[in-house]
Design a protein that fits this description.
heterodimer, A: Helix Hairpins, B: two-stranded antiparallel ribbon, globular
Chain lengths: ~100, ~525
């Protein structure tokens, strides 16, 4: 069971990374980052049941990451709202004021 | 199937060991409430002074613990471990906490001196009191003996810095920088966690102390997972410390953030992430490195090699990218990338019998880096106020308008470039000699080459300062008292470290032992 779950988590992580790097919509970029963090949660829970040395620690760790990811998303969305008010767009291609 | 996990609650004596963090947290809550309750007409600068006082108070607690640990005549390996060794108070943690607290206090002072000129900041109090949870996060990272504690400290630092970067609320650049920082920070957290999850899966534990025995056992059976775990971890932290090729966010974020926050990111954020890398790797990869018996290639050797390659890339990429940079904040960000490379060198050179002073070299360089970088940013706040922009040409004719400030800036530039009579010279020399004694000659060559390249853009600043400007009127530039304190503290300490580097180096080596103060659970 372990390899299939790990592959699943790795695929989720890659989809998240692809979305964060490629997507044009800022909300989708934030969503993709959350997807990467959820791939981590899947990994932790799988290891806590099928790992080399199974233990409860992985599940506790995943509770921590879920909570912290929620806090991070809250700050991220708040900053995105501030940015949207300043620029009037969620297209990340237009966030290029500092490029030289 | 699960073995019983014993939970050890926090006891009153434990609270005493955590006094610096708890004190800072109390000051933070007090200041949040004070900001809400104080009438509008009371200047928010008073909150800034209370922030500085709180940071100095916490530093007092750390110094007390440091002297207490040193004077107790403890056995080697006897350390203070709280909550089942998830939080350790040892000399490595104490030294770094002092560095972080001093850095944050200098940043708060710099903010006190420059916040009035920045019309984009609407809530001045937030700029001060939000530095406190960020400092607590950095302190937790330095003290963590467990991956969960480390992650919590990292996120406390990161999430607070996202808000700090976004504080120039009337500037769209600030919001843009903050958004970029959130996305990159989130990706780096995901990378770090992904690596941590593999390490947990291999060992069944998140305690750094357990990795020492568990990792060598599984090294031969699951090398691929172990490589993946360590490399994800290193990539994630490389983003946090802005080491090339993961540094592209740094110039943008530093440019958009308020200048004191840029200095905070450059010094405290970077230092905390480097301290975490050092602590994790020497408690895990160190024990699966070395000669390797029975035809097995130790995974740890490649992990350290990856760090050295990262260091070399950061030094070269940082200095070459800075060559054509004319915006001072972006230039200082890129100089920070190069300095991250220098700081990675003692971490990446493993402990060997001929070279075991890695950690003292690292801490010495971090202290010098703190002084020169915060000093340069403080001078920049003065210049950008006078010139109204942050371009390099704002420095033109500075010598004729503010001779003393330009003298201090020359000291910082000498130190950044690594020339004698400055702390930067000896910091680089110690690391260079360490690399030479570990026989990493290719790295020595890259360090020297990148230093030489960096002279070009550092001395472009000096040339600007002594060039008489014809366009602008040559009125004297006034330096506000808190900024003046920061500039002269940093310049004085930089020169003092350049004259007597042995004092600090010997002191660090006297109170620090690798076995007792870095490795966890050897007691």
């Amino acid at each position: 069971m372990l390899p299939s779950y790990l592959t699943m988590a790795a695929i989720l992580f890659c989809i998240g990374l692809y979305g964060a790097l490629v997507k044009r919509n800022a909300v989708v970029v934030l969503l993709s980052v959350e997807l990467m963090l959820n791939a981590v949660n899947l990994n932790l829970i799988v290891f806590s049941k099928y790992g080399v040395a199974p233990s409860l620690t992985g599940q506790v760790f995943s509770l921590f990451t879920i909570t912290v990811a929620a806090a991070e998303a809250a700050v991220g969305v708040a900053i995105l709202i501030a940015l949207f008010r300043a620029k009037g767009t969620v297209n990340v291609d237009e966030y290029d004021e500092m490029r030289r | 199937m699960y073995e019983g996990v014993s939970f050890l609650p926090l006891t009153w004596p434990d609270m005493l060991y955590m006094a610096p963090e708890l004190f800072l947290a109390a000051v933070f809550l007090l200041l949040v409430v004070a900001d809400l309750l104080l009438p509008q007409k009371v200047s928010r600068l008073s909150i800034g002074w209370m922030t500085v006082a709180g940071l100095l108070g916490a530093a007092g607690f750390v110094v007390y613990r440091l002297i207490d640990l040193q004077g107790s005549g403890r056995e080697v390996g006897q350390v203070i471990e709280l909550l089942g060794a998830s939080y350790v108070v040892d000399q490595f943690a104490n030294l770094l906490k002092l560095v972080f607290l001093a850095g944050t206090a200098l940043v708060a002072l710099m903010a006190l001196g420059s916040v009035k000129q920045d019309k984009d900041i609407t809530d001045r109090a937030e700029l001060f009191y939000l530095l406190l949870p960020a400092a607590i996060g950095a302190m937790i990272m330095a003290s963590s003996g467990n991956l969960v504690t480390l992650y919590i400290g990292l996120e406390l630092l990161s999430i607070t810095s996202y808000v700090l970067v976004a504080l120039r609320r009337r500037s769209s650049k600030s919001a843009e920088a903050a958004f970029k920082y959130v996305v990159i920070g989130g990706i780096s957290s995901a990378f770090i966690l992904f690596g941590m999850s593999y390490l947990y899966g291999l060992t069944g534990s998140v305690d750094l102390g357990d990795f020492r025995t568990a990792l060598p056992e599984v090294m031969t059976s699951y090398p691929a997972l172990m490589y993946a775990g360590f490399f994800f971890l290193i990539a994630g932290f490389a983003i946090k410390i802005a080491a090339a090729p993961f540094h592209a966010w740094a110039p943008d974020v530093y440019q958009g953030a308020p200048t004191p926050v840029s200095a905070f990111l450059a010094v405290v954020s970077k230092g905390a992430a480097l301290a975490a890398v050092l602590r994790i790797l020497y408690n895990s990869a160190f024990f699966i490195s070395g000669g390797g018996g029975g035809g097995v290639k130790p995974v740890g050797n490649d992990v350290y090699l990856a760090l050295l390659v990262l260091a070399a890339a950061a030094m070269l990429a940082g200095t070459t990218a800075a060559l054509r940079q004319r915006q001072m904040k972006r230039l200082l960000a890129l100089s920070g990338v190069a300095n991250a490379g220098y700081l990675l060198v003692p971490i990446g050179l493993n402990f060997t019998t001929v070279h075991s002073s890695n950690v003292s070299e690292f801490i010495f360089y971090l202290i010098v880096y703190l002084l020169m970088t915060i000093g340069a940013f403080a001078v920049l706040t003065v210049i950008s106020q006078a010139a109204g922009h942050e371009e390099l040409k704002g420095f033109s004719g500075l010598y004729y308008r503010a001779p003393w400030t330009s003298a201090a800036m020359v000291v910082f530039i000498l130190s950044l470039a690594g020339l004698p009579v400055s702390g930067g010279f000896f910091a680089k020399l110690f690391i260079l000699m360490g690399a030479a004694s570990a026989k990493a000659y290719w790295l020595v060559a890259i360090m020297v080459i990148s230093s030489v390249i960096s002279y070009y853009f550092y001395f472009a600043i000096v040339r600007q300062m002594f060039m008489r400007s014809s366009s602008e009127e040559e009125s004297e530039i006034r330096v506000s008292a808190p900024t003046g304190i920061v500039i002269w503290l940093c310049a004085g300490a930089t020169v003092a470290l350049g004259l007597m580097p042995g004092l600090l180096m010997d002191w660090i080596q006297a109170i620090f032992t690798i076995r007792g103060d870095l490795l966890i659970g050897l007691g």
